[in-house]
């Protein structure tokens, strides 16, 4: 049996295992380990296993993931999402659709601190959804706007998912983090435009809010949101100027967010440091497990020749590069409906990344492009993990069908963002090129 056939059998087993509901980390690791044993023998495979485990867990650069996660969990414990929503709703709540727009802008800022799409969707479902529904907002508009707003967390730095991409592709993590800043802001604005156009066409879906805030009250609200915005700007500017590395940025962000949480609660007890650390360890262990399994599977694909075969087939097609980009996009959108983001990147990048590099695309640009693709998949039926999170956190006030029903304008905004990134790659590359 040739190596390529073994690679094809292993890939088929991977997808069968996923469809059967086996944990992605487990099936990735098993296919990678047994595939390597079939290719190079048990002794050589065992040596490779130990090397991958050691290189993944001992590297100083990998510590950026738990540090960014810790920063996000401290931000949640501090109640910073509530502060951001209060500030943005005072400034934009009087507009038609203003609460939904406020949710988007608040989620963008909070997501920059948390780096978690699911976490941001959970927080703003509890904060914003009751207020929107109580003021007469359509259930589908309210819930869908929160589900898509959660995706901004992985675009605007710091983002744990961008770090995962950097690790899996051996790309510059600092450049990737900086690269997501401008696209994240533009995407947030596109989502706000999508909300505005929706309520312009269907004004009954977002009644005007009669609550009025004076200019003094609006300015006072900035005191609530200001500290977190300053922390985000500190991290981004420090990375951009070169004051600290991504790992140091994570440490600084976690320390400042902890300090902010302590000040806000006037003590350390309510921050629940022990519970926060345990939650960080659990999430980090899950991500590291997927990374280790993914690296094993990647080595299996490389040794079997499967990755090269698929790459040669795609690059050998007599078509324009944009056709390959569309094909890759469809693959990510379809698979993104069925699995979470780290697992999807782990499975696909060993094949798609070399293909895109051979076509001349920049690795930093492709990182932001593919992260956006993965997050659009996170809200797309029939799975759409963010949609399930919003429905679960709503405590029965919205159905899953309500969330899916309102997604179309926002998914179209996501597609528009993908087109912008393809036509104008400097949106992504401008800041990294000047670091």
TrEMBL record:
<protein>
    <recommendedName>
        <fullName>TRAP transporter large permease protein</fullName>
    </recommendedName>
</protein>
<comment type="subunit">
    <text>The complex comprises the extracytoplasmic solute receptor protein and the two transmembrane proteins.</text>
</comment>
<dbReference type="GO" id="GO:0005886">
    <property type="term" value="C:plasma membrane"/>
</dbReference>
<feature type="transmembrane region" description="Helical">
    <location>
        <begin position="100"/>
        <end position="129"/>
    </location>
</feature>
<comment type="function">
    <text>Part of the tripartite ATP-independent periplasmic (TRAP) transport system.</text>
</comment>
<feature type="transmembrane region" description="Helical">
    <location>
        <begin position="60"/>
        <end position="80"/>
    </location>
</feature>
<feature type="transmembrane region" description="Helical">
    <location>
        <begin position="322"/>
        <end position="347"/>
    </location>
</feature>
<feature type="transmembrane region" description="Helical">
    <location>
        <begin position="281"/>
        <end position="302"/>
    </location>
</feature>
<keyword id="KW-1133">Transmembrane helix</keyword>
<keyword id="KW-0472">Membrane</keyword>
<keyword id="KW-1003">Cell membrane</keyword>
<feature type="transmembrane region" description="Helical">
    <location>
        <begin position="173"/>
        <end position="199"/>
    </location>
</feature>
<feature type="domain" description="TRAP C4-dicarboxylate transport system permease DctM subunit">
    <location>
        <begin position="12"/>
        <end position="427"/>
    </location>
</feature>
<feature type="transmembrane region" description="Helical">
    <location>
        <begin position="6"/>
        <end position="39"/>
    </location>
</feature>
<feature type="transmembrane region" description="Helical">
    <location>
        <begin position="407"/>
        <end position="431"/>
    </location>
</feature>
<keyword id="KW-0813">Transport</keyword>
<feature type="transmembrane region" description="Helical">
    <location>
        <begin position="359"/>
        <end position="379"/>
    </location>
</feature>
<comment type="similarity">
    <text>Belongs to the TRAP transporter large permease family.</text>
</comment>
<dbReference type="InterPro" id="IPR004681">
    <property type="entry name" value="TRAP_DctM"/>
</dbReference>
<dbReference type="Pfam" id="PF06808">
    <property type="entry name" value="DctM"/>
</dbReference>
<dbReference type="InterPro" id="IPR010656">
    <property type="entry name" value="DctM"/>
</dbReference>
<feature type="transmembrane region" description="Helical">
    <location>
        <begin position="220"/>
        <end position="243"/>
    </location>
</feature>
<dbReference type="GO" id="GO:0022857">
    <property type="term" value="F:transmembrane transporter activity"/>
</dbReference>
<feature type="transmembrane region" description="Helical">
    <location>
        <begin position="141"/>
        <end position="167"/>
    </location>
</feature>
<keyword id="KW-0997">Cell inner membrane</keyword>
<feature type="transmembrane region" description="Helical">
    <location>
        <begin position="249"/>
        <end position="269"/>
    </location>
</feature>
<keyword id="KW-0812">Transmembrane</keyword>
């Amino acid at each position: 049996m040739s190596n390529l056939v073994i690679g094809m059998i292993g890939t088929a087993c991977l997808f069968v295992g996923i469809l059967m509901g086996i944990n992605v980390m487990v099936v990735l690791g098993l296919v990678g380990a047994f595939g390597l044993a079939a290719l190079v023998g048990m002794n050589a495979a065992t040596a490779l296993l130990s090397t991958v485990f050691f290189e993944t867990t001992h590297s100083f650069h990998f510590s950026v993931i738990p540090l960014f996660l810790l920063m996000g969990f401290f931000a949640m414990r501090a109640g910073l999402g509530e502060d951001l929503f209060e500030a943005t709703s005072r400034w934009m709540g009087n507009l038609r659709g203003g609460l939904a727009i406020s949710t988007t802008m608040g989620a963008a800022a909070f997501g920059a601190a948390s780096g978690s799409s699911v976490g941001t969707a959970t927080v703003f479902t509890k904060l914003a959804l009751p207020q929107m529904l109580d003021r007469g907002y359509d259930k589908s508009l309210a819930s869908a706007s929160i589900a898509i707003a959660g995706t901004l967390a992985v675009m605007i730095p710091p983002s744990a998912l961008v770090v995962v991409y950097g690790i899996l592709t051996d790309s510059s993590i600092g450049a990737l983090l900086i690269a997501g800043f401008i696209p994240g802001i533009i995407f947030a604005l596109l989502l706000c435009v999508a909300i505005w156009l929706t309520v312009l066409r269907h004004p009954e879906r977002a009644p005007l809010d009669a609550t009025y805030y004076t200019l003094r009250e609006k300015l006072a609200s900035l005191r609530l949101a200001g500290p977190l915005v300053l922390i985000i700007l500190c991290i981004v500017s420090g990375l951009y100027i070169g004051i600290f590395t991504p790992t140091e940025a994570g440490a600084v962000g976690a320390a400042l967010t902890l300090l902010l949480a302590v000040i806000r609660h006037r003590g350390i007890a309510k921050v629940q440091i022990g519970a926060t650390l345990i939650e960080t360890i659990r999430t980090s262990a899950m991500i590291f497990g997927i990374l280790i399994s993914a690296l094993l599977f990647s080595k299996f694909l490389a040794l079997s020749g499967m990755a090269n075969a698929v790459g040669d087939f795609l690059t050998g097609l007599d078509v324009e590069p944009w056709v390959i980009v569309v094909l890759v996009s469809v693959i990510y959108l379809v698979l993104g409906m069925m699995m979470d983001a780290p697992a999807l990147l782990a499975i696909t990048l060993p094949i798609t990344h070399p293909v895109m590099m051979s076509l001349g695309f920049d690795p930093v640009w492709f990182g932001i492009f593919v992260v956006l693709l993965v997050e659009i998949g996170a809200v797309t039926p029939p799975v759409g993990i963010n949609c399930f999170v919003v429905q679960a956190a709503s405590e029965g006030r919205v159905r899953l069908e309500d969330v899916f029903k309102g997604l179309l304008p926002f998914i179209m905004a996501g597609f528009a963002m993908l087109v912008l990134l393809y036509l104008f790659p400097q949106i992504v590359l401008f800041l990294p090129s000047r670091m």
